[in-house]
Amino acid sequence: MKYHNITHADMLNGEGLRVVLWVSGCSHHCKNCQNPITWNPKDGLDFDELAKEEIFNDLEKDWCSGITLSGGDPLYIGNREAIAKLVTEIREKYPNKSIWSYTGYTWEDLCQEKKKDKNLDTILKNIDVLLDGKFMLKLADINLHYVGSSNQCIIDVKKSLKGKKKILYIDNKKIMEEKMRSRGFEVAKGYEDKDINLPIRKTAHSAGYDIECAEDTVVPAKGSVPTFIPTGLKAYMEDDEVLYLYNRSSNPKKKGLVLANSVGVVDSDYYSNDDNDGHIMFAFYNVKDEDIIIKKGEAIGQGVFAKYLVVDGDRAKGVRKGGFGSTDKI
Known about the structure:
By secondary structure, the protein is α+β, with helices and mostly antiparallel strands. The chain has seven helices and 19 strands.
């Protein structure tokens, strides 16, 4: 096998700081390939013991997260025997270092080929992450993580082999969709099958989104502690935004329900927290003499998204460590 270069402390071709081996040989010849010089399998330097030692010297270092195989195509047929030996040795010597590999082949094609190619089978059993598929100029996107076009996938090889289906290590499509989102509501964990309605505004100029109760709940008369009403919802928003929760204007008079905190404040980092997934709840007191039953699907309040301001010199750096009522536990 021939190679063109070995780069050190690379941050662009996988997670962490990595050593990258740029092999020769590729049969895909993608239009606008960034390394056409590596296509010819006969060009470059012989991959010998000195080259391997250079790689291993990096893998010995604490700063090195692992190796990435690139090129060219490490899974080019003429490279497979040498790559199989290399990744097997790396896996034995450095079990805690990750092995990533690029290839122009698709995961589906490789899964079929490995049945009759022992070297390919060995490679797939020893690598951690595979970045598959040809570079396609019409699908190119500089915002993607570690790949050049949206058809290419970043695959968790071990999980995919075990599950006998392609499982992504990094889902670029999901990441891009999340980046394009600004604010909105989602169903919280545990309520996926509870037929939860996402809040809507009733008129074109309404500021508030009407929020419903997620399940029948009794609010005791003259309660000394507030009753938390589940909504089955969570909310995502921009970092400098907040969701304010307000009571329905008719609740105090008709039902004797008042919000314990007057106005609820939902911060952006409450979303999907580890404690309760960012589940939004309304805290009510019942000032009447009889218990009040709030039925599932009944509107209980409104949510209003807004920007907030910070003072000059603000240097808040705390990180939320909990769910409901945990902003003092950072």
